[in-house]
């Protein structure tokens, strides 16, 4: 490399000695200098760049999976196909159980997001840093009163949100960089109330439910928020349906 550069300088200073064009040699020299400077970067800088790029790729995969689920849900709701979706593999049921957002149940049309007919393949996001508790590596559909900046996105009734819990901080920041142009992670605050339901997907796509009501105050929707607990953890939110 050094010898090539020395020879290049000689050729530029003494054009009568050149056998080829000086511009060609200049371009080759600049390219090799660029390669040399890249190779001589501090190892930590190179590693940080690679980690950030991997986080961005993982964030993109996560968001694409979320959009697949959201698009399916939006399609069946907009077409008045069902009254409520399940984050499971259940087939269409004209007499399924509907959770009304007030802790009670009624009967109506239901279908599973991962049903074998026209549903999606079962999706597990892989954005978690370690094996999380409570099957957190899966997607969740939850009914809660969702607010952004203290303002309800719908009414005071329960909205439906898609969440991915226990993802890594790096992927959370990458999501917000893509969604909002900033790696800032706002704080999520949840509080209890008198009505509502949460629905959690298990590894096999089935779900459990309870009548515990939650008010979700989020700073990024869609986007990623941090739960300020001990230890803190990160949640990605997509709004499915507001009520």
Give a structural overview.
With 243 residues, the chain is α+β, with helices and mostly antiparallel strands. The chain has one domain. It has helices at residues 2-13, 22-39, 43-78, 169-180, and strands at residues 84-86, 93-99, 105-112, 139-148, 151-152, 159-167, 187-192, 197-201, 207-210, 214-218, 223-227, 233-241. The strands form 2 sheets. A 6-stranded mixed barrel has the order 4-6-12-11-7-10. Strands 1-3-2 form a 3-stranded mixed sheet. A hairpin with a 2-residue loop joins strand 4 and strand 5 (151-152). Helix 1 (2-13) runs antiparallel to helix 2. The longest helix has 36 residues, at 43-78. It is globular and about 80 Å long. It starts with a helix and ends with a strand.
**Overall pLDDT:** 74
Secondary-structure element order, N to C: HHHEEEEEEHEEEEEE
Strand content: 25-35%
Largest sheet: 6 strands, mixed, barrel
Round the Cα radius of gyration to an integer and report it: 26 Å
């Amino acid at each position: 490399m050094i010898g090539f550069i020395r020879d290049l300088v000689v050729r530029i200073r003494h054009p009568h000695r050149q056998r080829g064009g000086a511009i060609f040699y200049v371009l080759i020299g600049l390219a090799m200098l660029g390669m040399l400077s890249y190779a001589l970067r501090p190892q930590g800088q190179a590693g940080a760049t690679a980690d950030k790029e991997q986080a961005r790729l993982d964030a993109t995969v996560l968001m694409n999976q979320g959009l697949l689920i959201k698009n399916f849900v939006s399609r069946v709701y907009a077409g008045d196909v069902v009254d409520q979706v399940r984050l499971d593999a259940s087939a269409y049921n004209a007499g399924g159980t509907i959770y009304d957002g007030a802790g009670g149940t009624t009967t109506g049309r239901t279908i599973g997001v991962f049903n074998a007919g026209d549903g999606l393949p079962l999706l597990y996001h892989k954005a978690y840093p370690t094996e999380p508790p409570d099957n957190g590596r899966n997607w969740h559909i939850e009914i809660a009163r969702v607010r952004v900046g203290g303002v309800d996105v719908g009414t005071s009734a329960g909205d439906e949100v898609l969440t991915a819990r226990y993802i890594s901080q790096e992927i959370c920041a990458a999501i917000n960089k893509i969604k909002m142009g900033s790696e800032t992670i706002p704080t999520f605050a949840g509080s209890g109330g008198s009505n509502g339901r949460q629905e959690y997907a298990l590894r096999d796509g089935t779900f459990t439910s309870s009548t515990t009501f939650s008010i979700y105050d989020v700073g990024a929707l869609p986007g990623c928020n941090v739960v300020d607990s001990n230890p803190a953890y990160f949640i990605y939110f997509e709004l499915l349906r507001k009520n």
